[in-house]
Amino acid sequence: MNEQEIIDITNRVFEESFEIEKDRLKPDAHIFTDLGLDSLDVVDLVAALQKSFGVNIRNEEKVRNIRTLKDIYDFISAIKKEGH
Amino acid sequence: MNYLKIYSLNLYSYVLFAIYSAVCIPLLVLFVAFMSIFLGRRRTMKLYRRAIAWWSRGILLLPFPFVKVRYENNSGDTTGEPYIFVCNHRSFSDGFLMAVLPVEGVQVVNIWPFRIPVIGFFARKSGYLNIRMMQTEEFFDKAAELLRDNVSIIFFPEGTRSGSRKMGNFHSSAFRLALKSQAPIVPLCISGSENIPPKGSLLLRPGTIRIRRLRAITWSEYNGWSVVTLKNRVREIIGNELALMEQGA
Lengths: 84, 249
Hints:
The structure holds two protein chains of two kinds.
Chain A (H helix, E strand, L loop, with lengths): L2 H16 L20 H15 L15 H14 L2
Chain B lengths: L2 H34 L4 H21 L5 E7 L10 E4 L6 H6 L5 E3 L4 H4 L1 H10 L9 H13 L3 E4 L17 H9 L3 E7 L15 E7 L5 H4 L4 H20 L3
């Protein structure tokens, strides 16, 4: 899976699961302040990402450090490379 | 209105506020404490909630006629309590405005109101909820229990005062509770409170605050919606109505 595919799938998760318009999905968009998610939504986000990428990220400590969309792209990319 | 008049209005309002509260609060506390001897826990909590409403009603009348408050009920509701009220949040005064809603309700508030000596006391005694001081599951369990007990829950889903006419993002807890409890959601719009007082200040400006209650969205309507869909629809309804209100409608 290349980086563009990761970006496309992640963005689709935000569009479909959180009804966020495509033009707001910029890499530096903060998931809380810019995209309007809250701590409870993060649980849903993790579930949607797991389903879309077929990975298990529920116990990843790094999830807590995610702030922007780019953080998610990098996080998924790293997980994919580690072969989760 | 020039600054001299604004400062006079504030001096007048805050002096009255201090006198009114110094007399009213001890009387209310004594009254509820006395009545609690005869009442059970449930009815004592109801009385504390009423005491907050009585005190708040007086607070809202003090700056009249410089500050006017107008309730507009456009709901035509026949669904009956309990409700989940969802309201935009611009000012410190919004808590008082919600306290006088004609229902038995508790507000979901931030940490700081619990730390204000008198307000915190009444908030705790009335069972007000703070999602940041509770585990998520504990919060939903308590809120669901209140709804089952016919007590409405009042949310400010922006989580903090916007301080302006621009509405912030909505947090999802009100809508998660709705989907768990199937209670009707009532959108409420507050217009005009942004300067009474402005965020970061205690200086009241003259004006009219309007609170408009809209039609409840019932479980039969939102059944099957996701949290996000429900949140976005309610935010859209409140945003559209506020835009109308601010055009004078």
